[in-house]
Design goal:
Layout lengths: L1 E5 L3 E5 L1 H7 L2 H4 L21 H18 L4 H13 L12 H8 L3 H11 L8 H8 L14 H14 L8 H6 L1 E4 L2 E5 L3 H19 L2 H20 L4 H6 L2 H12 L12 H6 L5 E6 L1 H4 L1 H10 L3 H12 L7 E3 L12 E3 L4 E3 H4 L2 H11 L3 E5 L4 H11 L3
Parallel strand pairs: 4-7
Antiparallel strand pairs: 1-2, 3-4, 5-9, 6-9, 7-8
Helix pairs in contact: 3-4, 3-8, 4-7, 6-7, 8-10, 10-19, 17-20
Length: 391
């Protein structure tokens, strides 16, 4: 056994099997993958990694499974799934997920599957069962559910590292009052307040961290920089998927520092990100400014950001490289799959609390159409973008 100190849980105890997985290079890579992507451009202390998050998810997955009184071998499988659920994340975490999916046709979970299979000699549980766990294809959604070890850890960890102490989550209560019912997880009614607080914390985090305009701009610039890099080099998206933040950082700076590239060229997007010289909002609208119907129409009618950038740049009489269009991605509107055990029967959490519906509203408020450019071009680009989108 080995004890690993953690700021949230004091010590995380790992056995020899878990330690052998933790020591694998594919898992150690996560030390160098930022959990919140480029959010440290806004919150300088948000530099925690996917590695520490994965350790936390492993720990909470074990506690949840124990609370459900599952067999020891099943608990071990859930803990390993928690440890490896993010092993396939690309550099800068979710910031590049769109690039990877567009170029490879799959999300990071597919890469996690590969790593789980590659490491199967290090652990006893069946690899396919572990994969089913990370996809939420088992009876108990301990790692991939609406209330799971993944979410319970990152809500605590992200709030601590960004300074939002009012977004704390009562994990002890939620874990203690988890129980099995009809081959699924339900929560005793005593946990309702803690669950409402958890969803409220998630609302605040979505709004203030993931939805912060500077983070959105930095990540849009990163996606464009990586796409330009892949188009101009011999590297592929498969290569990027195996790198960490440091490796991609170095290669992007090397690419933008080539001798044949003019000093003032706009393509040096990543250099600007590294120096926090971000583009500004020329156009940044959501349902409050243009209405949900118009936002939905834009999301459904426009899908080629590159073509739009070229047309806006032509209208503004500037180089297309000085325009980045960040098209809206609409909320999926799925219901919350959380059940509360009341004295007479299990009920949907949404029948007891209005909090899940508020979550959908916040997702809509965070859905934006953004058009970004250097400060010097903001006015021209704003006029051209408003004309293009007929706003």
């Amino acid at each position: 056994m080995k004890n690993i100190r953690d700021p949230l849980y004091g010590f995380i105890t790992v056995n020899e099997m878990e330690l052998s997985i933790i020591s694998a290079p594919a898992v150690q890579r996560l030390r160098r993958v930022a959990h919140l992507g480029l959010s440290d451009a806004v919150y300088p202390s948000a530099t925690h990694s996917r590695f520490e998050h994965s350790l936390g998810v492993m720990h909470l997955a074990g506690e949840l499974a124990e609370s459900l009184s599952l067999p020891e071998e099943t608990i071990q499988a859930y803990k390993i799934a928690g440890l490896l659920h993010d092993a396939g994340h690309s550099p800068f975490s979710h910031a590049l997920e769109e690039v990877i999916e567009d170029r490879l046709g799959f999300k990071h979970e597919r890469q996690s599957e590969r790593i789980i299979r590659e490491l199967e000699d290090l652990y006893a549980p069946d690899a396919e069962f572990v994969i089913d766990i990370i996809h939420g294809n088992t009876k108990y959604d301990i790692v991939a559910g609406d209330i799971d070890a993944d979410r319970l850890d990152y809500l605590q960890r992200d709030s601590r590292r960004t300074g939002f102490r009012n977004s704390s989550v009562d994990v002890r209560t939620i874990v203690k009052f988890a129980q099995t019912h009809n081959e699924g997880i339900v929560f005793d009614k005593k946990a309702v307040q803690a669950i409402e607080d958890m969803f409220s914390a998630r609302l605040r985090m979505m709004k203030t961290i993931a939805g912060h305009h500077a983070t959105c701009i930095a990540e849009a610039m990163l996606r464009q920089a990586v796409n330009d890099f892949l188009d101009d080099s011999s590297y592929t998206a498969e290569d990027v998927l195996t790198w960490d933040d440091y490796q991609l950082h170095t290669r992007l700076l090397e690419h933008e520092g080539q001798e044949n590239m003019p000093e003032n060229v706009a393509e040096k997007l990543y250099t600007r990100i590294a120096n926090r010289n971000l583009y500004k909002r020329a156009l940044y609208v959501n349902e409050n400014s243009i209405g949900r119907k118009t936002l939905s129409e834009i999301a459904s009618e426009y899908d080629n950001a590159t073509s739009i950038e070229e047309q806006i740049a032509t209208k503004a009489d500037i180089n297309p490289q000085y325009v980045i269009v960040d098209l809206p991605s609409l909320p999926d509107g799925e219901s919350t799959d959380v059940h509360i055990m009341m004295p007479d029967r299990a009920q949907d959490f949404s029948d007891i609390s209005p909090t899940p519906s508020h979550l959908v509203d916040v997702q809509w408020r965070n859905t934006t159409l953004g058009v970004y450019s250097p400060q010097s071009d903001v006015d021209a680009v704003r006029a051209a973008a408003e004309d293009y989108f007929q706003l």
